[in-house]
Write a structure and sequence with these properties.
alpha/beta
């Protein structure tokens, strides 16, 4: 985008930062992993009450000086597909939705592995989807190791960069091994990472054992990690936006510091997601509330790459509310300069996924990108000679200038621009119907290049190993 709309001033960002530092030194954070406590203690942190760690500000300042300000994710063909820095915006779906809206029947149901592979194939085909996440939690596989099945599906069904999450630490290790298998080995994945692991922490003040294990493991391999404290304001953090952001960002500083202590220069992607507020009328934490779009300013203040949320809706079906909330949130996040915008296609506050909604989000992102393009104000753009040549009595339709430039304008794929009569002749279809047709056409025609046979066998071997381990437990 040619411009950014920050919700916080630099002075406000600085105050929140100071509050985060005060929280870390005065209140402290609970860490449930001895290795993490020892790293911080050796670096100068004070530990009380067993695992309550108080971090001095100089540790955070040191971490901020060594953490990379740019993270690049690559696609399967080793192309640098996502240079995550500055105001670069990249868009993708969400993860682990418990339900799916059936594309053919419109009925909400539990997802199976086929739904996941179809959704990933759609993501691979849609031009404005830059990365994938796991979309759905399939019920027709062993749920204890569903994250491995998701990873196999992502690596097989798309060439785009992957952001993955896992149920436990062992799942993280297996998924990294799977990614190394596809990338060409441990060093190849480190040099050109095709994946990044997302670790969610429920509060900036409490960091669970498995989350910390994943963080330090990924840091030891120098692989990109998303460390995302994401509290619910009013429950796990203060109800006020400034207070909840200060607490969550204290958690960001903890993750940054630990990663840099483990391995200096570890690429870390931080949160640009403001703490979701608990709706006291429904007890739902909404994804598309207007108060979102603020924490990005903190991450920009430190020039850190970030993850944010956009394209989601609280609606239970693909309807006017779903389209409106997706459009508003995607535009706000883009204007805020969020780097990784995820949850496109998610409904019901992240519980349900819809392929048709994802196709609509793809169209919305296309519109936003066209809106954000620079306007060329040069001789060709001003077209004074053409205006003088055509004059007040002519028209521009057949000029060479129009022929050169008319394709530069934005043209929709599924949004409607026909006359009413033409629309009726084409069936008078709604946006949802047109989106469904687009998805069905993509699924019928789009093919993803297969992984080599030996790579697929090795991925399956890792899965079988995990299956056997679960059965022995």
């Amino acid at each position: 985008m040619a411009f950014r709309f920050p919700r916080l001033t630099e002075e406000q960002s600085r105050k929140i930062c100071w509050a985060s530092l005060e929280i870390l030194e005065r209140v402290g954070v609970r860490l449930f992993l001895d290795e993490a406590i020892d790293l911080l203690k050796k670096a100068g942190a004070r530990v009380t009450d067993g695992n309550l760690v108080h971090l001095p500000s100089h540790l955070i300042e040191k971490a901020l000086s060594t953490v990379p300000k740019k993270v690049v994710l690559f696609d399967r063909y080793h192309y640098p597909a996502m240079p995550i820095e500055g105001d670069n915006c990249f868009y993708g779906p969400g993860s682990d939705c418990l339900n799916v809206v059936d594309l053919r029947t419109g009925i909400r149901r539990k997802p199976i592995l086929k739904d996941l592979t179809e959704g990933l194939g759609l993501c691979n085909a849609l031009l404005n989807i830059d990365f994938v996440m796991s979309l759905l939690l399939p019920i027709d596989v062993n749920t204890a190791i569903a994250d491995r099945y998701q990873m196999e599906a992502m690596l097989s069904s798309t060439i785009k960069p992957i952001i993955f999450g896992t149920h436990d630490f062992e799942g993280c290790v297996d998924c990294v091994e799977m990614a190394e298998t596809v990338a060409g080995g441990e060093e190849a994945l480190r040099e050109k990472p095709i994946v990044a692991c997302c670790i969610n922490v429920v509060s900036g003040l409490r960091h669970n054992k498995e989350g910390l294990e994943k963080l330090l493991y990924l840091a030891s391999k120098n692989l990109p990690v998303l460390y995302i404290p994401s509290s619910t304001a009013g429950v796990a953090s203060p109800s006020t936006p400034a207070g909840s952001m200060a607490l969550d960002y204290a958690g960001v500083f903890v993750g940054l510091t630990l990663a840099q202590l483990k391995r200096e220069g570890t690429p870390v992607i931080v949160t640009g997601i403001p703490p979701g507020h608990l709706d006291m009328k429904t007890l739902v934490s909404p994804c598309a509330e207007p108060e979102r779009g603020t924490t990005e300013a903190l991450s920009h203040f430190f020039k850190l790459p970030m993850l944010s949320v956009g394209g989601a809706s609280e609606s239970k079906i693909v309807d006017q509310q779903a389209a409106a909330e997706a459009a508003l949130s995607l535009l706000v996040e883009t204007l805020a300069g969020a780097n990784i915008i995820h949850d496109l296609g998610c409904l019901e506050s992240g519980l349900t996924f819809s392929l048709s909604q994802l196709a609509i989000c793809d169209e919305i992102v296309s519109w936003i990108k066209a809106f954000g393009r620079d306007i060329e104000v040069d001789d060709e753009g001003l077209a004074l000679d053409i205006i003088a040549e055509v004059g007040p009595d002519g028209q521009f339709l057949h000029t060479e200038h129009t022929i050169r430039h008319y394709r530069e304008r934005w043209y929709p794929e599924i949004f409607e621009r026909e006359t009413h009569d033409a629309w009726v002749r084409r069936g008078g279809k709604s946006l949802l119907e047109r989106a469904q047709e687009r998805v069905e056409h993509v699924l019928a025609d789009h093919k993803v290049e297969d992984l080599p046979r030996d790579v697929k066998k090795r991925l399956r071997k890792i899965l079988h190993r995990a299956e056997k381990k679960v059965k022995r437990q």
